[in-house]
């Protein structure tokens, strides 16, 4: 498994498995505790696995958790997604940096999103299954959503947005969220 840093977001990593292919298809390891430890990620910190299924054009995000935040491993297990991470950690050298990565079921690559970063994605295929491994139990009281189309984020969504949740449609902009979190806006 190959691990590379995501330069636009300090502490973010892309894990790319090495598939074994034959006439049946492929097999690959999508998580390896030793590889995670090699880049300073505690594999035992993850307490929840979740899965979403989205249709082409759906945007989920931009989401994060208040308080200590939540780190997650994100992988598109089927289809393709355009994945977005925005660094909202005021002390980070990449504060307000944005990274985009295409994740797909063909590569099974996994993106590590550090706590304190907003995350979202758009489904690029008719069906896209996205797996999440999360380091905190879900507490709805700590859910934070930023408008996916906020000019302050300037996310270049590759497709017209077809569907979002009501929560995502009604989300406040970046500046308002930063004020609410007690973070000085740029």
Automatic annotation (TrEMBL):
MF terms (GO), sorted A to Z: dTDP-4-dehydrorhamnose 3,5-epimerase activity
Entry EC no(s): 5.1.3.13
Keywords on record: Isomerase
Entry keyword annotation includes Isomerase: yes
Keyword Transferase: no
InterPro entries, per database record: RmlC-like, RmlC-like_jellyroll, RmlC_Cupin_sf
Catalytic reaction(s) noted: dTDP-4-dehydro-6-deoxy-alpha-D-glucose = dTDP-4-dehydro-beta-L-rhamnose
Enzyme category, top tier: isomerase
Domain of life according to the entry: Bacteria
Gene3D superfamilies linked: Jelly Rolls
Pathway, per record: Carbohydrate biosynthesis; dTDP-L-rhamnose biosynthesis
Residues forming coiled coils: none
PANTHER family assigned: DTDP-6-DEOXY-D-GLUCOSE-3,5 EPIMERASE (PTHR21047), THYMIDINE DIPHOSPHO-4-KETO-RHAMNOSE 3,5-EPIMERASE (PTHR21047:SF2)
Family classification: Belongs to the dTDP-4-dehydrorhamnose 3,5-epimerase family.
Purpose: Catalyzes the epimerization of the C3' and C5'positions of dTDP-6-deoxy-D-xylo-4-hexulose, forming dTDP-6-deoxy-L-lyxo-4-hexulose.
Subunit note: Homodimer.
Protein name: dTDP-4-dehydrorhamnose 3,5-epimerase
Species the sequence originates in: Streptomyces werraensis
């Amino acid at each position: 498994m190959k691990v590379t840093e995501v330069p636009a977001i300090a502490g973010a990593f892309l894990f790319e498995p090495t598939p074994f292919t034959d006439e049946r298809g492929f097999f690959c390891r999508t998580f390896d505790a030793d590889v995670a430890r090699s880049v300073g990620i505690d594999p035992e910190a993850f307490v929840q696995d979740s899965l979403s299924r989205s249709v082409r054009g759906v945007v989920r995000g931009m989401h994060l958790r208040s308080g200590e935040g939540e780190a997650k491993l994100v992988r598109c297990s089927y289809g393709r997604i355009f994945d977005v991470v925005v660094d909202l950690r005021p002390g980070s050298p990449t504060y307000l940096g944005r990274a985009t990565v295409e994740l797909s079921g063909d590569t099974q690559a996994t993106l590590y999103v550090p706590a304190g970063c907003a995350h979202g994605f758009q489904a690029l295929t008719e069906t896209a299954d996205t797996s999440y491994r999360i380091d905190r139990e879900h507490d709805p009281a700590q859910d934070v959503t930023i408008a996916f189309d906020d000019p302050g984020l300037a996310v270049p969504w590759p497709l017209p947005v077809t569907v979002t949740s009501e929560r995502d449609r009604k989300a406040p902009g970046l500046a308002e969220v930063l004020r609410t979190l007690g973070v000085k806006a740029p």
